[in-house]
Amino acid sequence: MRYIEPHGHMVSRVTDDYIDMVTAGCACVCEPAFWAGYDRSSVNGFYDYFCQLTDYEPKRAAKFGLPHFCWLCINPKESEDVKLAEEVVALIPKFLDRPNVLGIGEIGLNKNSRNEMKVLEMHVDLAARHNQMILVHTPHLEDKLKGTRLIIEVIKRDKRIQPERVIIDHVEEHTIKLVLDAGFWAGMTLYPESKCSPARAIDMLENYGSERLWLNSACDWGVSIPLNVPYTALEMKRRGWNAEDIDKVVYQNPLKFLSQCKKFKLPKA
Ligand SMILES: [Zn+2]
Would residue 265 count as lying in a domain? Predict the structure, then answer.
């Protein structure tokens, strides 16, 4: 089996996870900027984090033969402080030329608040000005449907953004169609507790087809399973999917989306 982990918060994982992922056939991991498990107290905390994502973590992944890419932003969970967000957004362009940076993400909404909306708009503008791809986080805590609608509105309003260069992640049964119909890519996050189980993800693939969709584990500092993409591939096999169709979902689709960024290259197998 080969697969891509397009959304894993590896800074919070141990080296055993890297070994397991590579053993299971992982071809690369992509790490969106996210909450650290605690609120950073100043823009300097983000400077250090961006250095970690663009320098230290790719080197750690390389020790296990795994290419590492990342996305940069201030995440929605820390977006209540608009002043801090402005400072972080001003810092990001310094890092955009680094070789493993794919774009702006994971931006979006957490509680659908006014300040989160402001910061989302700032990030969409940043992506447009620098011609960057976008990875979007949709809310778990508050109303996901409302949050997804608001996010789509903000992105669609900015005519500089091409929807096919945007992925809206953590979709569920009630938001997947909205995202795909608007021309975006959709991500399904396989979580043991919230978000979406492997069985539900496969049901959605069977109902909506597998165009413009990817699977990820979003493994982070919370209860999560770094191997949930290959586990879901096994479940697809048990449910009668053929090898080519599984490969499309877990490898070819993320490859197609991510390859829109010129910096995304995998070493020849
Ligand atoms: Zn995430």
Answer: no
CA–centroid distance, residue 219 to ligand 1 (Å) = 8
What is the model's pTM? Answer: 0.96
Distance 218 CA to ligand 1 centre (A): 5
Length of the chain: 269
Does the pLDDT of residue 73 top 80, yes or no? yes
pLDDT over 70, % of the chain: 99
| Ligand 1 center–CA 1 separation, angstroms | 24
Q: How far is the CA of 192 from the centre of ligand 1 (A)?
A: 14
- 142, pLDDT greater than 70: no
Domain CATH number, residue 184: 3.20.20.140
Tokens of 24: 């299971």
Strands 101-108, 68-72: parallel, antiparallel or unpaired by DSSP? Answer: parallel
Q: Is 102 a member of any domain? A: yes
d(CA 235, CA 157): 39
Q: State the distance from the centre of ligand 1 to the C-alpha of 254, rounded, in angstroms.
A: 16
Looking at the predicted structure, is the pLDDT value of residue 269 above 70?
Answer: no
